[in-house]
Design brief:
The structure is a single chain. By secondary structure, the chain is α/β, with parallel strands linked by helices. It has 14 helices and 13 strands. A seven-stranded parallel beta sheet has the order 3-2-1-4-5-6-7, with helices on both faces. It is globular and about 65 Å long. The two termini are 26 Å apart. The structure holds ligand GMT. Ligand GMT binds at residues 8, 12-15, 17, 119-121, 149, 172, 206, 208, 210, 281-286, 305.
Length: 386
């Protein structure tokens, strides 16, 4: 098949999922065209059968409000025509699905099929602005197939939009060969971040308000009263400045490090003793799954997606949203019991491996075939893939 994938290029999980899916589809012999305003974060140059098609937004002086949505629609229509796409798969309903629907109108009868994957804030932000709500409803009504990255996101979409739309759950996945536990020889690398005898905690996100990074810093401050520890904050975003100020105000500047964006996060995650996530809401929580694949137990808030990835007490701990003291206590319990933490790390790895890439990719392929009419006979849609 000839597949166009539209996604955000930034380090957020939806761009990562879109890129990893594109790479896996290409390995299975499909031609993949990644349409995005910049080269997606995890897309290296020179991949076979994966082509990057940049979207450029016009900046003509009369147009004081440049439209990425329209530029993307035009680019999708152009790529669909030139590359004879069978299917367009957009990641994030807003604005990508609306752009793809516009592209389909531009193409008329030659339009490819359209699959939309919901990732999280495309749904949970819908109430913030009437434009989001209307746009997402339009996407849900008009696309050929809609998928969600977790069952909780699917449920939330159905509830918020009061729609009967069939939404298939295809959970995110991780490559367990890339994200793997650390070899014994990595003690030296770990010492770069935490001296011997100190615990190492890691958080990875795009530092948006929804991640509640200040809660995580407060939890760390409480933990430090009892356990010597270091915290690595990986990623960047609009909430990073507030986080830096809080770290300084709490006198934690020597024990908390901001690393910014890290491209090869699989080198860092296995060094951690615990991975922390304090989000208010997560469509899935890909960073937590990647940490688990590295054998690292996760302490996360009960925020939707993470509750489908891990079970409290088995692969880590789940704590209420907005309760730094509970998060600190959970960390203290695990750090105080190395055997329990090691057992949880092993189970975390086993659980993460079950989020199998091939299985998820096959389900996307199956959807593409169904909507371009190439499936041999009816294919039943399963309710979930894990
Ligand atoms: O987490 C973010 O803020 C980034 C966002 C994105 O666009 O990449 O992530 C969303 O999609 C990821 C991949 O499916 C999920 O793992 C994240 O849970 C989801 N984020 C939220 O729902 C806040």
């Amino acid at each position: 098949m000839r597949i166009g994938i539209a996604c955000f290029p930034t380090s957020g999980g939806s761009g990562v999922v879109a890129t990893e899916l594109g790479l896996a589809l290409a390995k299975r012999g499909h031609e993949v065209y990644l349409v995005s305003p910049a080269r997606p974060f995890r897309l290296a140059a020179g991949e076979r059968r994966v082509h990057f098609e940049p979207v450029s937004v016009p900046d003509y002086p009369l147009q004081a409000y440049p439209s990425y949505g329209i530029a993307l629609a035009c680019r999708l229509a152009e790529v669909a025509e030139r590359r004879r796409l069978d299917v367009i798969h957009v990641h994030y309903a807003y604005p990508h699905a609306v752009s793809a629907l516009l592209a389909r109108d531009m193409l008329g009868e030659r339009a490819p099929a359209l699959v939309v994957t919901l990732h999280g804030t495309d749904i949970t932000l819908a109430e913030r602005h009437p434009c989001h709500e209307r746009a997402v409803r339009f996407a849900l009504d008009r696309s050929d197939h809609v998928t969600a990255v977790s069952d909780s996101l699917r449920q939330e979409t159905l509830r918020r939009f009061g729609t009967q739309r069939v939404i298939a759950v295809i959970r995110n996945f991780v490559d367990p060969r890339v994200f793997a536990p650390r070899p014994r020889s990595s003690a030296g690398a770990r010492r770069r971040y935490a001296p011997p005898g100190e615990a190492l905690l890691v958080h990875v996100s795009n530092f948006r308000a929804v991640k509640r990074v200040p809660d995580l810093i407060r939890a760390f401050a409480l933990l430090r009263r009892h356990v010597p520890a270091r915290l690595l904050l990986v990623g960047d975003g609009e909430a990073a400045a507030t986080a830096r100020r809080l770290v300084a105000r709490l006198g934690l500047s020597r024990s908390v490090r901001f690393l910014g964006e890290v491209r090869r996060v699989e080198r860092l995650l296995p060094l951690a003793d615990l991975f922390l996530l304090a989000s208010e809401r997560e469509g899935f929580g890909l960073s937590a799954l990647e940490a688990m694949a590295c054998g690292v137990p996760v302490v996360s808030t009960r925020s939707g997606g993470p509750e489908e990835i891990l079970t409290d007490g088995l692969e880590g701990r789940l704590v209420p949203v907005g309760a730094p003291a509970a998060m600190a206590r959970a960390c203290r319990d695990l750090l105080g019991d190395p055997e329990l933490r090691a057992a949880m790390g092993r189970r975390a790895r086993e659980r993460a491996v079950a989020f199998d890439r091939d299985q998820a990719v096959e389900r996307y392929e199956e959807l593409y075939r169904r909507c371009i009419g190439a499936a041999s006979g009816p294919v039943a849609l399963r309710a979930g893939n894990q």
